[in-house]
Amino acid sequence: MKKNMSYMDSVHRDGRIWNLSVMVILFLFPVTVGIIYSAMPDWHGLLMGVIATAPMYWAVGIVETITYVPMLGAGGSYLSFVTGNISNLKMPAALNALEQADVNIRSEEGEIVSTIAIAVSSIVTTLIIIVGVILITPLTPILDAPVLEPAFAQLLPALFGGLGVVFVSKNWKIAVAPVILMLILFIAVPALNAGTVGIMVPVGVLFTLGVSRIMYKKHLLD
Amino acid sequence: MEFNVNSPILFVLAGIIIAVVLAQSVYFLIKAWRRGKAIGMAPEKLKRIAVTAAVFTIAPAVAIVISVITLAKDLGVALPWLRLSVVGSLSYETIAASNALSAMGLTFGQVKDMTAQQYITIAWVMTISIMVGIWLVPVIGKKLQNGMISMENRDKKWGEIFSNAMFIGMISAFVGYVFCDFGTVFSGNTAGLIPPLVMAVSAFVMLLCGLAVKVIKKSWISDYALPISLIAGMASAIPITAWLG
């Protein structure tokens, strides 16, 4: 057990060093470009731009961190919150891998499986984007072709159809109430759309946890 | 030096930062792999997990390349390449760039010959406005994880239900999202049916994969069931959109 903890402790130690270092390095891009071109930011534009953009994304970021960290595991969380695309890429990759290996995210095996899936997914994504950037001129007419547009526009429905059927069928008792609630909310409330689905994830998670707890206490999940 | 949104120096800077991010993924991959082997996980099992994750990633990663192409029209290639290789998305970067430019009295998509000042202002707004999880995970990640582990130790069955409930909660939000335009069907706009139908095709293909695993007993099908259902769903979107869009 002590050995398990020491691995987890080292993941947290390394993750902290990496994430805080990458955070500093990310700021170096605008700083260095400014130095090279002897340009300062437009301070008014910067301030007003941040005021207009940051509050919502910071709020979502805080809620996302609390929601996703327990699902991604330690190593997976440090990587995912640097490389992004969590709900459409890292989380499904981790979920699929956990399902494939039949392990729980809070076991050490689960931690390893999730970290490997998310690390590989991050590496492959980065490499594919590099190839895309190098070949951007010949690729643009192909990837920008109107015929392919509907396929990429429907990526999320295509992803959550396959993923959803596996998890909902395995956990149908706890899935009924949240799926019905979300269907009603998304169909009835026009403000809920692609831009706001991120906010609804924690709502769905909290609601499902509440319903599951009640069902568990009433022995409906035995 | 005269500024250009596609200046080679911007690619060098973005490339260095992306190399560091890539190194972090490689570092964690090696660390987890070694630990997996040390606790007795079969290397074949680890390899299968890695290959499945790699294959699954291809289609969503190509979608990110398309986002880079979209943003590159106004911001050059280097900045979108950097931003979409780290935390960010097409919608977020567009909103951040639009807000930064409108604060400078300009309109995103209509700026010709962007100056270095405008460019770095956009880059600052993009960098600052999404910078939360990257430092918050180091601050609260360990406490959250330890809290979850001690909950699991207290009541193992509830711990398992808790995990499944979190995943189901997330999936239910996206299932709801797929139906967000469904209401328009009642006013005669059939386009709202496209996402639910695509989801149904993907779910059906996943079920077929599950059936195939049982009937022909080939375990590789279950490894690739998610990418297969994803691609099938995306491919079905083309005729479905032509029909209903």
Features:
heterodimer, A: 222 residues, mainly alpha, 2 domains, B: 245 residues, 78% helix, globular
Layout of strands and helices, then pairs:
The complex is a heterodimer of chains A (222) and B (245).
Chain A lengths: L1 H35 L6 H30 L1 H10 L2 H16 L6 H27 L1 H8 L5 H5 L1 H16 L1 H17 L8 H21 L5
Chain B lengths: L7 H31 L4 H33 L2 H8 L4 H14 L12 H13 L4 H22 L1 H23 L15 H23 L2 H5 L1 H20 L1
Strand content of chain A: under 5%
Q: How many discrete domains of chain A?
A: 2
* Percentage of residues in DSSP E strands of chain B: under 5%
Our count of helices of chain B gives: 10
Beta strands of chain A, count = 0
For the CA atoms, what is the radius of gyration of chain A?
Answer: 21 Å
Describe this structure in words.
The complex is a heterodimer of chains A (222) and B (245). Chain A has ten helices and no strands. Chain A has 222 residues and is mainly alpha-helical. Chain A has two domains: 2-134, no CATH class; 171-222, no CATH class. In chain A, helix 8 (155-170) packs antiparallel against helix 9 (172-188) and helix 9 runs antiparallel to helix 10. With 245 residues, chain B is mainly alpha-helical. Chain B folds into two domains: 8-131, no CATH class; 179-244. Chain B contains ten helices and no strands. The longest helix of chain B has 33 residues, at 43-75. Chains A and B meet through helix 1, helix 2, helix 3, helix 4 and helix 5 of A and helix 1, helix 2, helix 3, helix 4 and helix 5 of B.
Quick summary of this structure?
The complex is a heterodimer of chains A (222) and B (245). Chain A is built from 10 helices and no strands. Chain A is globular and about 70 Å long.
